[in-house]
Specification:
The complex is a heterodimer. By secondary structure, chain A is an alpha/beta fold. Chain A has helices spanning about 1-40, 125-130, 215-225, 230-260, 265-285, 290-310, and strands at about 45-60, 60-65, 70, 75-80, 85-95, 100-110, 115-120, 140, 145, 155-160, 170, 180-185, 190-200, 205-215. Helices cover about 40% and strands about 35% of the residues of chain A. In chain A, helix 3 runs antiparallel to helix 4 (about 230-260) and helix 4 packs antiparallel against helix 5 (about 265-285). Chain A starts with a helix and ends in a 7-residue tail after the last helix. Chain B is an alpha+beta fold. Chain B has helices spanning about 1-50, 70-80, 85-95; strands spanning about 55-60, 60-70, 95-105, 110-115, 125-135, 140-150. In chain B, strands 1-2-5-6-3-4 form a 6-stranded mixed beta sheet. In chain B, a hairpin with a 5-residue loop joins strand 3 and strand 4. The chains are: A alpha/beta, B alpha+beta. Chains A and B meet through helix 1, strand 6, helix 4 and helix 6 of A and helix 1, helix 2 and helix 3 of B.
Chain lengths: ~325, ~160
């Protein structure tokens, strides 16, 4: 009986100890992620013990798990592959502005996720993205026709601006791990456009799975790091919910500034224009009309610049 | 026979004593960890509050560090966090209290941004962050501080 008691105590103790280590690792990763999120435009390589980070985003719920311990993340906007396994985490963050700063966006990946940029002659957006990508990430620039090699990576994301995929040769062994993101910019303007997500179906063909909108550079990189529309669109929804809070606050700020202002041009023109644009921004978000979000973003920016020109308090 | 019983009793006594001792050590260690995590949460909350774009001073999208716009602050309070916005900020701040106070040249600003305690008795840990509070209408700066109080439940 004594032996049984001792053995069961030891076994229970091992479980508790493993759980303690997982919680400790989760806390450390959480601190690292929070710090990286605050440092805009900074790329960081973080060495850790071998861990598995999984990203979950569903409706109003988003979380990541480290070695199966969950951490809810209402505050962070993260674009990441579904699963990152290894001893390193790459973090990179950018600001999402529409037109004022809304939130920092964090990208997570590691060296086992490869990004392949298909560089066709007339495609400047791919050059632009490739040059902006942090140097330490696993990237490759290829021509219109290329043969992908199995380099034992966890995922392969092909980034292209051309719908023609006839020159792409992808070995069978990595087809399940390969996805493609095709970018369609709006009339030469990289700042917004469409992204199409492709993956291999059961018959071994690269097929279009979904199409979505990107609103700026930060969301375009978000589409590349997610490389999957369900995660991308879930994170974009989260970004839009945060935007609505901010627009509501700025709406109230603009009303207060208008009431306190003494300059007639601002009271009669620029504050009302800005208030109108802020109301429409929220309406456009509710109707998922991202083109309108961009248009009213420009309108708000123009009003804010005019307020500055006439020496009135700025909205942002 | 009596000797055997005595030996078994001593072993059982040592095991029970060891178990009680270990439980006490473990409780202290868990309390220490909880305190450490609570402090980490406090630091994290302070980083979040000082970087919230919906409160920070900005000029054409350039955010100033350690500065809160008084009008944004008033607009934030008008949001009424009991309504639809509450869920978002509850995720952000959790079980805590955030207040903003001005101190110099006047102490006119004394506002509670958020308060979400546990029911019943709460343990509290606070952190104070010095800030400027900018009034864009009158173009005046006030010195002040943000107080973030983290609530934890007392451990028995």
């Amino acid at each position: 009986m004594v032996m049984l008691f001792v053995i069961s105590s030891i076994s229970k103790q091992k479980e508790v100890s493993d759980s303690d280590v997982s919680v400790e690792v989760l806390q450390n990763v959480d601190s690292i992620i929070s710090t990286s999120w605050q440092s805009v435009n900074t790329f960081k390589v973080i060495s850790t013990p071998k861990i598995t980070i999984e990203y979950i985003c569903e409706d109003n719920y988003s979380a990541y798990s480290v070695n199966s311990k969950l951490k809810k993340i209402d505050d962070l906007v993260i674009f990441s592959p579904k699963k990152i396994v290894g001893k390193k985490i790459f973090t990179w963050s950018k600001e999402y502005k529409m037109p004022m700063k809304i939130v920092n966006v964090l990208y997570l990946t590691n060296e086992k996720h490869k990004y392949i940029f298909v560089n066709s002659s007339e495609s400047n957006v791919i050059n632009f993205l490739y040059n902006k990508f942090p140097d330490n990430m696993t990237t490759e620039r290829v021509g219109e026709s290329f043969e992908l090699e199995d380099g034992n990576f966890d995922t392969y994301t092909i980034i292209s601006s051309e719908d023609d995929r006839s020159g792409w040769t992808i070995p069978h062994s990595i087809r399940k791990k390969t996805k493609a993101v095709v970018i369609e910019t709006s009339s030469g303007n990289y700042n917004y456009g469409n992204v199409s997500f492709y993956s291999f179906d059961g018959t071994g063909h690269l097929v279009l799975t979904d199409k979505n909108f990107y609103l700026d550079e930060s969301t375009l990189f978000g589409a590349i790091f997610s490389s999957d529309n369900s995660d991308y669109s879930c994170t974009i929804d989260k970004l839009m919910r945060k935007s609505k809070n901010i627009y509501q606050i700025y709406h109230n700020v603009a009303e207060k500034e208008k009431n306190a202002s003494s300059k007639s041009i601002c009271i009669s023109s620029y504050y009302p224009m800005a208030i109108g644009a802020l109301s429409h921004l929220n309406i456009s978000i509710d109707s998922n009309d991202y083109e309108e979000v961009i248009m009213f973003g420009y309108s708000l920016d123009s009003s804010n610049k005019n307020l500055r020109k006439y020496g009135c308090p700025l909205i942002y | 026979m009596t000797e055997n019983i005595a030996i078994i009793m001593i072993i059982v006594f040592i095991l029970i004593f060891g178990f009680i001792f270990y439980s006490k050590v473990r409780t202290v260690s868990i309390q220490g960890k909880l305190k450490e995590y609570s402090e980490l949460d406090l630091v994290k909350a302070s980083q979040i509050v000082s970087a919230l774009p919906e409160l920070s001073c900005s000029s054409e999208s350039l955010t100033e560090v350690g500065c809160i716009n008084k009008l944004k602050l008033e607009a934030f309070i008008e949001l009424d966090l009991q309504q639809e916005y509450y869920e978002y900020y509850r995720g952000l701040f959790g079980k805590s209290k955030v207040t903003i106070n001005s101190t110099f040249p006047n102490n006119s600003t004394n506002v509670g941004l958020y308060d979400n305690p546990f029911e019943g008795i709460n343990n509290k840990d606070s952190i104070f962050i010095p800030i400027n509070i900018f009034d864009p209408i009158n173009d005046i700066f006030n010195f002040g501080y943000v107080q973030i109080t983290k609530y934890t439940q007392p451990t028995s």
